[in-house]
């Protein structure tokens, strides 16, 4: 704690001809106030010790560098006014009313806390954030002053940028790639449109940090400007998340690639996607390679809805899909839905992978599903899957918001042509602690080479229109 213009008065011995016995600032004057990517506001507390035996008003002043530092009116400061000082600095002035001392020999020390918000990021440091305490009845009036140094970690706050397209942000110099060509850490308020090739790369010990505000998204744009290069995003050792206490983001949206294009629009390696409605929402005709990536605390990890796709485009091109984990973190719950999000949520993610009207989903990489309401949920979708593990697919036991819960794989169809092949000799599947390991309705297909332990029901196959069902070579231990 720093005391400025402090007098050596002690309780019971008021100094003669003094107006204020002591003023203290928290943080201490001359301190550095450091902002990390999720530090959106900060507070300054001023303690004013005095002997006045009647209520007394003090004037408080703050010099703020706009647009970076803004005063938040939380009611602590009365009679607030703002005066531009030039150079982007605005002086915020107001008064506080200090309660009286019970007698002239008793020192009282009320404190007042003021809130400021950070908006944007700045190069280097800001040295012109000041706080002052003024007593107009004194001579001189200024009783104390504190100056702070403001600095931030290496990230770019896109809230101040008028552009949302990456190409425009690069052209304006708002985003400057590092020496490796990687984009820096980013704070995204609405959406970031990847309309040119981009790299987001950290290291195994220092993941690149991409933070999205509630409802915000990253959109890998449809190839509409071939002269600029087909838009794509490569990530390695990158994490995509929201700040603590925030609601879910929308996630990453991958739009269709141009007809005949061979570009992998989203190439994600050793990365993490958390706190999203849809971790990845891949649209018909898009292309992905997702490997060794963690999908944690998302409503849906990978969303593949092909409804409305043109004939022959009812799928996504997977150039690799292995080593991924879809889960709800132990002891944690999903964040709340962002305002306007259409789905209700529970503590656990609804499912790891959601498919609808998808043609031929073929996945045999080593992917796992843990602590979710469901593992894979598919409707009107043909699939061949193997080399998967499902563990703890259960209801969270708090609220009932999801249409189904407790299924490792849940399949349902409205037509007579959907089929599923689940498990192969060289690509077995394991289920542990599920209400039902495999459920299928109005499907043809087979379940083979699966190990099911701690399940209430191993296989529940209903209403197969052709009765073309094969269930064999499975090891099922039911509760």
Written overview of the protein:
This protein is mainly beta and 479 residues long. It is 1% helix and 49% strand. A hairpin with a 2-residue loop joins strand 7 (78-86) and strand 8 (89-98). The termini are far apart. Mean pLDDT is 91; it is low at 1-14.
Question: Which secondary structure elements does this structure contain, and how are they paired or packed?
Answer:
Layout lengths: L1 E3 L17 E5 L5 E4 L5 E9 L6 E10 L3 E4 L5 E9 L2 E10 L12 E8 L6 E10 L7 E11 L2 E3 L8 H6 L13 E4 L2 E4 L3 E4 L6 E5 L4 E4 L12 E4 L1 E4 L7 E6 L11 E4 L2 E3 L1 E7 L4 E5 L2 E3 L3 E6 L11 E6 L2 E3 L23 E6 L4 E3 L3 E6 L1 E6 L3 E3 L2 E6 L13 E6 L6 E4 L6 E6 L1 E6 L2 E5 L1 E6 L1 E6 L6 E4 L2 E4 L1
Parallel strand pairs: 3-11, 12-13, 13-16, 14-17, 15-18, 16-19, 17-20, 18-21, 19-22, 20-23, 21-24, 22-25, 23-26, 24-27, 25-28, 26-29, 28-31, 29-32, 30-33, 31-34, 32-35, 33-36, 34-37, 35-38, 36-39, 37-40, 38-41, 39-42, 40-43
Antiparallel strand pairs: 1-2, 2-4, 4-9, 5-8, 5-10, 6-9, 7-8, 10-11
